[in-house]
Design goal:
The protein is mainly alpha-helical and 292 residues long. It is built from 9 helices and 2 strands; from the N terminus they run βαααααααααβ. A two-stranded antiparallel sheet has the order 1-2.
Amino acid sequence: MSKVTEIRVSQWYFGGLASAGAACVTHPLDLLKVQMQTQKGKNISMLKLTGIVLKNQGVMGLYNGISASLLRQLTYSTARFGIYEMAKQHLAPKNGQPISFFMSAFLAGLGGFAGGFVGNPADLVNVRMQNDVKLPPEQRRNYKNAIHGLWKVATEEGVLRLWAGASMTCSRAVLMTIGQLSFYDKIKELLLATKYLEDNVFTHVMSSLLAGGIATTLTQPVDVLKTRAMNAKPGEVKSILTLVMGTAKEGPLAFFKGYIPAFARLAPHTVLTFVFLEQLRINFGTIKVQTF
């Protein structure tokens, strides 16, 4: 005799809302990560960099570019979570078994690529607004907010400039989404299979913390290159190869510049995103019938 149960599944836009909520908390760490990655030949510590920002800009200096950060999450994360969740729900067997890890990774990569492309303009403005703090006044771009930044780039540098660094953004987004979404689902599945843990906040935190560590390690080299490409003046970066070679001259660890603030930002961001996402799913998700 078959058994019928009801579960709640996410709506397509829950990922974007959860990521935007997490970004409000972790934005200062993202700002410090960007500033560390754009250092060339210098190695100012995260603590010293925080002191410089606070001294020059005050506490609100740590929130430079927050409008672009939110716009980025509402485009990039809505697309990647939406594609992944909807495809996963559509392909999931009716008996409640999860899809295979390889299929999960493929769907996450697909969602990540689309999200990276859609979110690139907001990401570019986000990087520039965050880096403005440490530039001399005469070199600052002085974007008032995300929309003003998009308008300035489109009118002064051309619309296509909004997709500067898009190949690296999409590559990073593929790796990031596999690291976060696929590994989160797999780790959560393994933890729940032990019978010692239940589907609660503690399990969500543990799963997302481990997924955050995996995602940081996978994406850091691409993230450094992406940040440098986006922050470059027109014509400064001739090709991806010259950018890779230029970074390599600083030593192999140059590809992992800003790793600590990247993990310090991505780990809580990943944890908060999945905690918020699970709460949205549990409280506002669509009811789906499963037959065992």
